[in-house]
Amino acid sequence: MSVLLRRARPDDLGAIMRLERDTFTDDAWPEDTMRRELASEHGYYLVAVDGETDAAAAPDAVFGYAGLLAPRGSGQGDIQTIAVEPAHRGAGLGRVLMQALIAEARRREAVHVFLEVRADNPVARGLYASLGFTELGVRPRYYRNGVDAVLMRLEVPQTVTRPADARPADPIEETQS
Ligand SMILES: CC(C)(COP(=O)(O)OP(=O)(O)OC[C@H]1O[C@@H](n2cnc3c(N)ncnc32)[C@H](O)[C@@H]1OP(=O)(O)O)[C@@H](O)C(=O)NCCC(=O)NCCS
Questions:
Q1: Is pTM, for the whole model, over 0.85?
Q2: Residue 121 belongs to a domain with what CATH number?
Q3: Which residue out of 31, 109, 116, 143 is catalytically annotated?
Q4: pLDDT tens readout for residues 113-143
Q5: Which residue, by CA, sits nearest to atom 8 of ligand 1?
Q6: Structural domain contains residue 161
Q7: Strand, helix or coil for residue 30
């Protein structure tokens, strides 16, 4: 099976909401909120689907999704959400989704990307830290069941292209795509 990442479409809403409700049992977004997110001109939502049988009509077609909010010109972005179906976790999909959102934030000229994560979610916190996010502070009892939110920020890295044997101090080309 090949996994394909593509922009979310309005007809992915049902599959996204199934995964949303299964994943965030206490804090799932209402369907109307997710519909607005998918339609927002400032948003960028990706879904991970089976690359061979991609059919949004299939109820279980979406293995994962992630969303960025980054109005052009604001200089900032927010990771709105990310979820990967349990059967597909641990295979690198969450990291690829995050990297794709960060790349889009860079294309929109965001300098910083922010997110909030539950304090009791070491897997997500580990993923974000490994991508360069640092912890800015805590919002006490932010989530419905009294769990703190940890606020994190990434300084969006420039893309740097250099020959494989060049020293890190000698970039030959620096691009902001
Ligand atoms: C967080 C989540 C999206 C990660 O997706 P994933 O596809 O499993 O992640 P990856 O396989 O790309 O792993 C990325 C990193 O996460 C961390 N991680 C993944 N599985 C882990 C585990 N079982 N224990 C500890 N850390 C783990 C590691 O840092 C890992 O990097 P590494 O493989 O280089 O060590 C997924 O676990 C998920 O959907 N969780 C439920 C929803 C959620 O918590 N969303 C975040 C809300 S802020």
A1: yes
A2: 3.40.630.30
A3: 116
A4: 999 999 999 999 999 999 999 999 999 999 9
A5: 89
A6: no
A7: coil
